Amino acid sequence: MIFRTIGGDEDSIVDVPLGPGINWVIPFIDQVTIYPTERQSVTMASPSEGGSRPPIQARTSDGQEVSIDVTVIYRITPEMANQVYRDWRIGYEEGAVIPFTRDNVRNTISALTVDQVYGQREALGPDIFESLSPRLRSEGLDLVDIAIRNITFSEEFVAAVERKQIAEQEVQRATNEAESVRRAAAGDADAAVTRAEGEAKAIIARAEAEAEALRLINEQISQNPNLIQWRYIEQLGPDVRLIIIPSNSPFLFDLQALLEGQESVGAPAPTASDGEGGGN
User: Fold this and answer.
1) Burial bucket for residue 266 (CB in 10 Å: 0-12, 13-18, 19+)
2) Domain boundaries, the chain
3) Closest CA relative to residue 26, chosen from 42, 7, 43, 10
4) Looking at domain 37-153, does it have CATH number 3.30.479.30?
């Protein structure tokens, strides 16, 4: 950015700064100061992190100290170059950008606990940008972006976080194991219920079959009363050749003939007198 002064008096600065390109100036009368119109940046971090300024030291609301690496990207507002010249000359970075950024970062961190800072790193950049942007704009500077590069916590806090993470992992592992046991127990219970239901259905089916068989047997018996005697004969051993009919019957039957469906052969049962006098 180029703008003109006449006679060296600040009040004689040309109202409208001259923009980039070819501009007419009066030698020995007009004094020219050149400001860059492109984006500029400053990094507040350790040299190993590429910083040109020291990192920002801040303290949380619960008294924990943290170190924050920040990169600020900004540019001079062209139409406000005259104000930048009056207020800062060429020292706008050291006089405005760096101290304003440090102040806003510290104010933002001081409103948070160390746990909040640890868990909300991504939200810090937008929060700081929102508060820092209007402050730089009032000085003729546009804030383009602010990047939180790194946050370093105390060794005690890091150790506490590690212990907490280990404890959470143990709790999660125990929870997973308990869930696995619960699922296994539920599976065994379901299998037992399924087996019991199957056995119950089998018992019911057998009972229904037996009931149906008894019904059919009763039906056949009612139609053929002698069926019971016939079934009894079928159950006798194969070596039994003769059976004795009830005592009020004088006949003996040949079992084999009966089983083969032949008529019974027999004779009147011998009497005692017949046995003694068979020759007469």
Assistant:
1) middle
2) 1-34, 37-153, 229-266
3) 7
4) yes
Alpha carbon distance 258, 151 (integer Å): 109
CB–CB of 142/132 below 8 Å?
Answer: no
- Element holding 164 (H helix, E strand): helix 155-223
Question: Measured between alpha carbons, how far is residue 19 from residues 5, 36, 217 in Å?
Answer: 14, 11, 118
Q: In tens digits, what is the pLDDT along the chain, a chain of 280 residues? A: 455 555 455 556 766 776 666 767 666 666 777 888 899 999 999 888 888 899 999 999 999 999 999 999 999 998 888 889 889 988 999 999 999 999 999 999 999 999 899 888 888 999 999 999 999 999 999 999 999 989 999 888 878 877 877 888 888 888 888 888 888 888 888 888 888 888 888 888 888 887 877 777 777 777 776 666 666 666 665 665 555 555 555 544 555 555 555 444 444 545 444 444 444 4
pTM of the model: 0.56
Query: What Å distances lie between residue 173 and 161, 169, 179, 181, 261, CA to CA?
Result: 18, 6, 10, 12, 81
Question: 197 Cβ partners below 8 Å, 6+ apart?
Answer: none
Distance CA 9, CA 165 (A): 64
Nearest Cα neighbor of 6 from 34, 33, 30 is: 30
> Cα separation of 204 and 273, whole Å?
62
Q: What one-letter code names the amino acid at 234?
A: E
